[in-house]
Amino acid sequence: MELFQTQYDWIKRTRETLFHYCEGMAHDDYVKEMESFGGDSIRNLHVHVATCYHFWLGTHGLSKSIGKTEPKDIKTVQDMRGLFQKTDEIVEEFLLKYQGNWNHTIPYTFKSGETSDFSTLWLFTHTSTHEFHHKGQIVKIGRQLGYTPPDTDLIAPEVKTCQS
After folding, report:
1. 13 found inside a domain
2. Which residues in 113-148 are b (16+ Cβ under 10 Å) and which e?
3. Phi-psi domain of 118 (left: phi exceeds 0; alpha: psi -120 through 50; beta: other)
4. Are 83 and 69 spatial neighbours (Cβ–Cβ below 8 Å)?
5. Which alpha helices (DSSP H) does 24-159 contain, by range?
6. What range does the domain containing 123 cover?
7. Do 41 and 33 form a contact (C-beta atoms < 8 A)?
8. 151 within domain boundaries
9. Into how many domains does the chain fold?
10. Residue 80 CB contacts under 8 Å (≥ 6 apart), including other chains
């Protein structure tokens, strides 16, 4: 299996742990906007993570037209799972398209008019590390709301399968 696909599979595994954590919260806590986090909620941060993948990998890496998801459109953790299923499809298409071509550059023009070229490796690295950054914030918000978070780090032993 391709290295980055394996890495993304690990990311999805930690994300699943985070989904289970969020499913154990009261809905009002899941959507509660916290002043200490700039008015963001757990739901809003989760949507932000998904739309970052959509923006960088889907829109810029794959030249797809992807509508922006608004947090208010996501009502439950199950809805969030659906949003991330779409995200997984985008990431897997991106990984397949650029497999072995991680130095390929894609130009980007900022709102200021400045331009930059981002490699496909940068795009994948940025989106995956961005998810882990916000995963930490989600866990911290949950803790502030009185929930004990599970361990969401990549410390579990790798799952091995036996082949007959």
Report:
1. yes
2. eeeeebebebbbeebbeebeebbebbbebbeeeebe
3. beta
4. yes
5. 27-30, 42-53, 77-98, 120-144
6. 3-144
7. yes
8. no
9. 1
10. 19, 22, 43, 46, 47, 50, 74
CA distances from 110 to 107, 113, 114, 115, 116 (A): 10, 5, 5, 6, 8
The CATH number that applies at residue 97 is: 1.20.120.450
Number of other residues whose CB lies within 10 A of the CB of residue 149: 16
Contact 8, 95 (CB under 8 A): yes
Instruction: Fill in the amino acid letter for 138.
Output: I
pLDDT digits (tens, 9 = 90+) for 40-56: 999 999 999 999 999 99
CA–CA dist 104, 94 (Å, integer): 12
Please report which helix (H) or strand (E) contains residue 117, including its range.
strand 115-119
Residue 96, token pair as written in the block: 């397949």
Classify residue 85: in a domain, yes or no: yes
Instruction: Give residue-wise pLDDT tens across range 70-121.
Output: 999 999 999 999 999 999 999 999 999 999 999 999 999 999 999 999 999 9
**Count of residues in the chain:** 164
DSSP 114: -
